[in-house]
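Example record

One chain of 493 residues, shown exactly as stored in the release files.
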Amino acid sequence: MKRFIQVISSVLLMTFLSTAAFAAKTDITLGMALEPPNLDPTGGAAAAIDEVVYANIFEGLTRFGSDGSVNPALASAWDIENDGTRYVFNLRPGVKFHDGAEFTAEDVKFSLDRARGEDSTNAQKALFANIAEVEVIDDHTVALNLTNADGNLLFNLAWGDAIILDPASADKAATDPVGTGPFKFSNWVQGDRIEIVRNDDYWGESVALEKATFKFISDPTAAFAALMAGDVDAFPNYPAPENLPQLEADPRFSVVLGSTEGETILSMNNKSEALSDMRVREAISHAIDRQAVIDGAMFGYGTPIGSHFAPHHPSYIDLTGNATFDPEAARAMLKEAGYIDDLTLSLKLPPPAYARRGGEIIASQLREVGIDTEIENVEWAQWLEQVFKGKDYDLTIVSHTEPLDIGIYARDDYYFQYDNDDFNGLISAFNKETDPERRDVMLKQAQTMVSEDYVNGYLFQLAKTGVANSKINGLWENQPTQANDLTGVYWSE
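Predicted structure tokens for this chain:
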């Protein structure tokens, strides 16, 4: 009998250990090439902020789905009144911030007034310029009264820059974010990782993951090594496209190629001495071999573009023919503008591989037509301070990953300093227009205008090169906004 009990006990123990061994994991480690400068999406322009906090820690009234659709979030429904100049939002009841504070309409008013205020540091303050008043009707109803009808409002409110903060914790959001999302901030080891944990008091459906770690690995070689060693489970935006064929052949991994909102451009300072002349900007555009940049910097991953617009958008038109690779035409335009082998421009390159690799290629191409460049590699903090804020540059390379952001060209103080009253008027009319067909026509006009004015050198649409353990499910294939949304992520057993 004793032996029988021992055998049964051994069987039960082996069964328990086997079940435990094959149970689905509930934690995940994601690799990121860049560390965010802070964790407040309302106080910084870096995409890496939203890649950690969007839909995970913070939520807005609306949110983007994986297909780019605009869906309810903290607002469960809304009504549009007064010919599109008043939006009344019904807020979800029973929602609490991570510190236990109740979410009410007063928090919406505080957050949107803060975003649009005179002293706002919001990188997308212009998104809220049309809001005349945030009106609290009751605890769970809020109205936005607008200066003009706004066909973009629900879309704008889905941006990370429009998330809702609790007044009591807003000032510490940069280092200790408190939101309403399905995950809570846990830990930040500067230079290494950020950890978040499941919010068991979440108002919505509970997430499968108990913990997620965002690990920062900027070096492409180190990123590959971390994947192969299992130190990271996934790299939603893998920084070393040269390794993708090898990873695709490895059954341990899934490689998913998707699209992003990232228009990768050679930004030009339109008010610097030489680049204020459109002939010089056009010459630079004709000096660039886009496909050579895509092949050399991105190992073939990327779609050529001819304007600041995503090829997957229904209103996209192909304008790459406005800036064909034509070195002879480039030299002729430079000569016409008075520059004969004596033009030198600064080229400031932020950390991503597309910028550093692409910058070397473009510098070589410009040299062939008589333009020398002074290359300066800068870190993101320096880029934001000198280029984005200070406008102290001639050329730079960056991916603009905000969705449907061609309206930035109507901001006279924006860092490439394009100033065109006709374009500004077009965008103003577009923002007020609600008819889909008219909006489509206006978007095509806007693309054409910035392309034919050669505001910037339009290179390629950044591909989303995702790599993950083959047992991970639910990561976004495409990237309609800069986010690593973990709400639907789970492991297969």
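Notes: The two ends are 37 Å apart (CA to CA).
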